[in-house]
Specification:
By secondary structure, the chain is α/β, with parallel strands linked by helices. The protein has helices at residues 4-18, 36-39, 46-49, 57-67, 76-79, 89-92, 104-110, 171-174, 218-224, 259-264, 269-281, 309-333, 335-338, and strands spanning 70-73, 95-99, 117-118, 127-131, 145-147, 154-158, 180-184, 188-190, 195-197, 199-200, 208-210, 232-240, 290-297. The chain is 31% helix and 16% strand. Mean pLDDT is 79; it is low at 30-39 and 302-343.
Length: 346
Amino acid sequence: MLPVELIREIIFRYVDDATPEKPTDLVHPSPSSRNQWFDVKPKAYWDSVSSLSLVSRVFRDITLEAWFQTFVVRRPKVHLTGLSTIPGVSQWTRVVHWINPTSFSEGLSLGHFSFKRSLMAFVRLRKLRIAAFPSNHSIILLEMFEELPPTVVELELRYHAWPSPQQLVPTATLLPNLRVLEMHQERAWCSLCNTCNVLRLRDDPVTITYTNGDGLPKLYNRYLAPLLHLRTVRLSAAYTLYGSVGLQDLKTPWRGECGECTSLHLTDEAFVADWEAQNKEEPRPPSLRKVIWTFAPVEEEESSEEDTESDYVDDLTRLQERYWMELDHDSDDDSGWDSLGSGDEN
């Protein structure tokens, strides 16, 4: 038999290779492909790795440890109360992938907003990834948590529709040791008009990397300043080619300003001098070394009375009902696993 250390390396690599890549799109699936939202998997399907657990006791223990490196939370009142079902989960988990519900009413039924949650049971947790949803509760992100382990050094916020700086207020209290922050967002926050919108440019932008601690919207600097260990911030923004100015034309670093403010103000040398002074006066994270902006093109669709929001909600509701019915059917067949996760997810 191979040494346990070698078996461990093989199994961990196998599970890693079976894990789907994270979607790179900045926006949620369009109505024509909305089924994809529920098909996106943050970890390997159990069926793709379960055969390894049948080889021997050693294989089973290592396979479970590798698979539970990521723990998925869709239904907090179920998933966070059954951690003792499989001993070791709280020790194995390194990433918690928290998936927000699609509506406030669904969130209440699934236990998202009934009271604040604690993740302190995951004693070796290093990363929290929150997948938001474009709805009226998408501003509720970190406010859902009462406390987080001090071991968490990475935070990833994906798909939050309106990335207001206010969402970052709890960060300093909940994540004092944060080193990496990633905001995978369609819209960027504009510190000039205090809105967030799709960026409109004349030319395709390229990745912007700031290595001098610059590059954050003004209020982001203010709310992240207490994070003494924050070193890297990754931000994204969608853009369209319907604008009149390119980022290379600017007289100042671009920090997430909207297309209109970028065109009107950041090309004006007199305005830029005052704007730079304001940004320099703003406190900022003392250890910040790198701010990276990446961009993705997006097609702006004209609204139509035939494609109403109510139609979208109705269709999505039907999809959810079918999804949860299938999930509950699976859990009836394997109740022990369901106490730990959503069928095939944990």
